[in-house]
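Q: For a teaching session next week I want to show students how multiple molecules come together into a single three-dimensional assembly. I've collected the sequence lines for a complex. Could you give me the predicted structure tokens for the whole thing so I can convert them for display?
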Amino acid sequence: MKRLNLPKESTFIGPALLWKRIAAFFIDMAIINLIVLFPFRSLFQNIVPKDYSFSEAYKLLSSTNYSSFLTSASFIMSILIILYFLMLERKMSQTIGKMLMKVYVVSDNKELKAWQLIARNLVFIPIFPFVLLWVLDPLFMFFTKTNQRLSEILGKTRVVERYSLQQ
Amino acid sequence: MNKVPESNFKWGYAIFVLFLLSILGFLLVGIISLFAGVDVESLSGNVALITLEGVIVGSDDSKFLFESRVSSTDAVELIEKADKNPNIKAIILEINSPGGSAVASEEIANAVRKTNKTTVAWIREVGASGGYWIASAADHIVANRVSITGSIGVIASYLEFPGLLEEYNVTYQRLVSGKYKDIGSPFREMTAEEKEIFQQNLDEIRDYFVSEVAKNRNLNKKDVDKIANGLFYLGVQAKELGLVDELGGKGEAIAYVEGKEKIKAEIVEYKKEEGLLDILGDVMGKQSFFIGKGIGSSLLNSKIASTISIST
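A: Of course. Below is the structure for the complete assembly, covering every listed component.
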């Protein structure tokens, strides 16, 4: 049987588009908030009265009665968030958000290692000096050619997507 | 750079990870709540109920083996916590105490008086002496008609056993620097002068107690002085005297709060939350007590020591 002489499709990879990365991040955070952090959310709802404004809630939780609890809770929440990214990206190079946006995490080296995945998620640890990444990470992402965050550069990882070219 | 992997996303694994992490979250929330002693229910109502049960003491330990005690440190902390919570409109003190340390009673009474919330003392079985001192600091006192209350006075009685020591040929070697350093020692008889000094101090504390009750209840000090002979009064007698405002129980206390604050009361119990370490410490403390008791019994109560404490 003869085959049609169709143009060959070639693919290459490049930095993932920013909007896709941001969308993937928000999808992941929504899932984490909805499922992983559910126990914490219900706990905070019990502590903070419903009619409290954000500043009132912050003032209450910062009081001496709750400060040690809040510190431990926020630290544990950050560990759970890191575990979400670590477990999914280690096994499948993708989280749910990244899968929906068709972007992947890849290593600059041969394969993705656990330390690289931890390094790229250090931004979630709510203690100094990691909190500096809350500012530095987006700045690096917007102002580097490869769209890499600072923690990605440190962890030697990047987020890419597949582009196709028709010849 | 490593090649882009073919998409091998597995929903089964993703759901497993989410499930695992949420279970882990529940477990960790439970653990940190235990360790941090977080009282998650304490902010859900609008009327705080604080129970003061047992002898009033100044120490941090609100439990002495199986006996409840009112620790002034804990009680003041709970009162201040309720006072700081804007959701709480009133505080009900459930009092069941025969009194105790004069200092501890005054500390709690001061904390009650300083609150900006409506306060109600609900006397159950007993609200006498230091227990009444605390109740008097509340805006309103409710007692059962057969509750025991009043007993305004100070006591510092103690056992003296030099005769017993003498019988066993034990002598008390008095080595003091300062004439009154061993005043109140159970090993020797108190002199008349020392008794006089003691009595003066007790009278002074009693006078202060009377002043505080008169001030708190807006009564004439001389009137309070007349009934401050240490005698207890039943609730119904105390109502006639003006030591309590209303006969009743929890329902009456709540009704007062609802009327005063124009709210539908949602009671929330404020109590000292025990963290895991407190519970373990309590269990170990009890074990140590019984081991110590066994050793002590074997030594046939060879040594008795006592110090005077001033109680209301």
